[in-house]
Write a structure and sequence with these properties.
- There is one protein chain.
- The protein is an alpha/beta fold.
- It has one domain: Protocatechuate 4,5-dioxygenase, Chain B (3-Layer(aba) Sandwich), CATH 3.40.830.10.
- Helices cover 32% and strands 15% of the residues.
- The protein has an 8-stranded mixed beta sheet, sandwiched between helices. It has a two-stranded antiparallel ribbon with strand order 4-5.
- A hairpin with an 8-residue loop joins strand 9 and strand 10.
- The longest helix has 26 residues.
- The chain binds fe (ii) ion.
- Fe (ii) ion (FE2) binds next to helix 5.
């Protein structure tokens, strides 16, 4: 009878590139006419944003240290649990999901993920690793296929894959970054891993592509809302997905980590803040709900509300919320920001599977 450990974390790509990279998007936007003249003038920013911009060197270093320590703590929690498999809900940003096929959700049933090359865009990574360094990680085909099978049989149709489609580096960023960060001290990652891709870009899919397509300077003044793709899965469906996977895993013998990986509101997806700042208010509401064990409320958020709050990727966490219904997490860290692109939450839910209760 299975046992489940819940984990929430980020896969913040800039962490690969060093803290000097954290303001990269903001610097790009300060010279970009997609942002109004008024908001390109820093003196018109909220006080907190001005302060963080002024102290960016020191603050970004602290932001980095807090994330690294949080990853180390989560790694210890995972090692103590000693799982047979780790399933991660993460977003696909025009990696495996491209114009020829855009599924809402895909469970990756690969036996192994070989030759993963996540450092190609990170020549100044914190480990000093060469850009062409590759990693080999194990999948868990038997468990992944059974989860896909059981979801179908429980009236939740889901797509599956047996090998990467387009992902250039063998595994999408949401998963590869997460594993690299959970292995911050480079002792290796041997836990069989099941990536579960979520179509996070939703209505932004065609215009945003890798995430920044809607910020091309030539698009200044155009209404990106006119270029709408069908949405990604709704929070309510993700909540149900998480709940079903918990049920399926607890019927099997393994010890399994169910993990959501994503920063919460993203500045470059938050139109109401002219792409400059994340929706800190909405994140704060979600954080208060989470720390009080009220994450069931997230199922009531609509796709549109999530997207208006720049929470396209936060939806990965709604699947975790469904899996952890009724449990209150231990918060490891909550790192807010203005100009470093996103707020990041780190938490875990004590194992409480059938085996744990007996
Ligand atoms: Fe992402």
């Amino acid at each position: 009878m299975g046992e489940v450990l819940g984990i929430g974390c980020t896969h913040y790509p800039s962490l690969l590139r060093g803290s000097q990279a954290y303001t990269g998007t903001t610097r790009f936007l300060l010279n970009n006419p997609v942002v109004s003249d008024k908001m390109r003038d820093i003196s018109n920013w909220p006080e907190g944003a001005q302060a963080e911009w002024a102290n960016q060197e020191e603050d970004s270093k602290l932001h980095e240290l807090r994330m690294i320590e949080a990853f180390r703590k989560l790694r210890k929690v995972i090692d103590d649990f000693n799982p047979d498999a780790v399933l991660i809900w993460g977003d696909d940003q025009y990696e495996n999901f491209q114009e020829d096929l855009v599924p809402p959700l895909v469970i990756h049933c690969d036996d192994e993920f070989n030759g993963v090359e996540p450092m190609t865009s990170a020549p100044k990574n914190p480990w000093g690793e060469p850009v062409d360094k590759t990693w080999n990680w194990k999948g868990h085909q038997d468990l992944a296929k059974d989860i896909a099978t059981q979801l179908m049989e429980r009236d939740f149709p889901v797509s599956y894959s047996l090998k990467p489609a387009h992902a250039k580096h063998g595994m999408a960023h949401a998963f590869a970054n997460t594993l690299l960060y959970l292995d911050w001290d480079r002792k290796g990652w041997d836990y069989p891993t099941i990536p579960f891709s979520v179509n996070a870009l939703g209505r932004n899919f065609e215009v945003s592509q890798q995430g920044f397509g809607h910020l091309k300077p030539e698009l200044a003044g155009s209404d990106i809302n006119l270029v709408q793709s069908p949405p990604g899965p709704s929070p309510r469906s993700l909540y149900r997905l998480g709940k079903l996977i918990r049920e399926i895993v607890e019927e099997r013998p393994e010890r399994v980590v169910l993990m959501a990986s994503s920063s919460w509101s993203h500045s470059f997806l938050t139109q109401k803040n002219e792409w400059l700042f994340p929706d800190r208010e909405t994140d704060q509401i979600h954080f208060n709900q989470l720390k009080n064990g009220q994450q069931h409320l997230w199922a009531d958020v609509t796709n549109l509300e999530a997207e208006q709050a720049g929470g396209h990727e936060w939806k990965n966490w709604v699947a975790l919320a469904g899996a952890m219904e009724g449990q209150t997490p231990t918060i490891v860290e909550y790192v807010e920001s203005w100009v470093f692109n996103s707020d990041k939450c780190f938490c875990y839910f004590e194992p409480a599977g059938v085996a744990a209760a007996t």
